[in-house]
Each structure stands twice: as C-alpha cells, then as structure tokens.
Amino acid sequence: MTSSDRTRGDQIRGDMTHGDHANDDQIRGDMTHGDHANGHRATGDDHATSGDHATSEGSMAMQHDDAEATPMKILVVIEDDPDVQFLVKAVFSMDSRFTVTNVAKTAEEALETPPTSECGIIVLDHGLAGPLPGLAAAPMLKELAPEAKIIMFTAHAALQVRADTEPAIDAFLLKTDPEQLLPLAQHLHGLSPQASTRSA
C-alpha cells in the first residue's frame, strides 16, 4: 500500500466517523425534539381535559341555578269535600315546586281571602258548599289572579263542554283521574315532570 493509499484510507475513515457522529447528533436531536413536542401535546391534552371538566361543572352549575331559579307555584284548592282536599294536597306534595297556601270550602271564601302571593294553580270544584258554583266563580278568580292557571276538578263529566267555552278555565279534569292532576299542572306551567320531585 502506497503512502497516497494510506492517506486516502485515513480520509475515508475520518469522513465516515464524522458522518456517524453527525447522524447520532441528528437522531438524538430528533428524539429530544419529539419528546418535547409530545410533552407539549400531552400538556395541551391535560388542559383540554381540564377545560372539558370545567365546562361540565359549569353546565351542572347552570342547571342547578335554573332549578333554584324556578319560582314557587302557589296552590289554591277550592273544594268542600275534606277527602278531596286531602287528595289534592297529597298529589301536589310530590313536587316541591308547588306549595298549598289556601284551602277554601266555598268560592266566596276564596274570593274574600285571596293568597298574599300570586298563585300559580287554582284547583276548582264546581259543586261547592256556597251559592256560587265553580264555573261562575272562575272569571272572578282569574280577575284576582290573572297569571294563575285554573283547573276545574269535578266529578261531573257533562260540565266539560261548558268549561271548555269559559276562557277563565285553563283545563278540565275529572276526579276519577287524580293521577293526572300533577302532570297537568306541570304542563300548564311548562315544568319538567321529573325535576324538583320530593323524595319519599
């Protein structure tokens, strides 16, 4: 081997060694850069997860605020039968958004002692103990409480035609269907049938 061959060999080995070092440095650099990028991506994912959690908690808080913001619906019962009075109060006790404030045996009594707060629902019988029947009392009750929804709750099915033509009466229900009383009241006020239900 001549001197020039040895010189060329040394040069080739030097180039290969330098190339290997350069490749190693590049690989290490790429790996380090990838690790940093993955770290940033993971941190971003953590932030996204935290944001989703915060959004979920915010939605739950808003729902809770909406439930608390639902105003109490004052309930007035105009019924002369004690058993039916008890039934109506028991039905509405299943929903904490309703509270019974007035129970009157006659329409005259209800008109003389209106609730101190704006009532939401008036459950009204037709055949009452006093001289004023429910159908005749409905417009007077609506005048005292224009925002109230009046449900005629009676045992006389034949009254439905007359009740349907009376603008002051918002709904008609027979006493044979008491299980429909609460859903009907909830519907009249646009309330969910599940929300704010009292536990047993």
What does this structure look like?
With 200 residues, this protein is α/β, with parallel strands linked by helices. The chain has helices at residues 3-69, 82-92, 107-112, 134-144, 160-164, 181-188; strands spanning 73-78, 98-104, 119-124, 149-154, 171-174. A five-stranded parallel β-sheet has the order 2-1-3-4-5, sandwiched between helices. The longest helix has 67 residues, at 3-69.
What is the helix/strand order? HEHEHEHEHEH
Structural class assignment: alpha/beta
Taking pLDDT < 50 over at least 5 consecutive residues as the criterion, the unreliable ranges are: 1-10, 12-69
CATH architectural name of the largest domain: 3-Layer(aba) Sandwich
Number of domains: 2
CATH class bucket of the largest domain:
Alpha Beta
Number of helices: 6
- If you average the pLDDT, what whole number results? 74
The end-to-end distance, rounded to whole angstroms, is 104 Å
What's the gyration radius in Å?
39 Å
**Proportion in helices:** 40-55%
Strand order of the largest sheet: 2-1-3-4-5
Outline type: globular
| Main sheet overview | 5 strands, parallel
Architecture blueprint of SSEs:
Blueprint lengths: L2 H67 L3 E6 L3 H11 L5 E7 L2 H6 L6 E6 L9 H11 L4 E6 L5 H5 L6 E4 L6 H8 L12
Parallel strand pairs: 1-2, 1-3, 3-4, 4-5
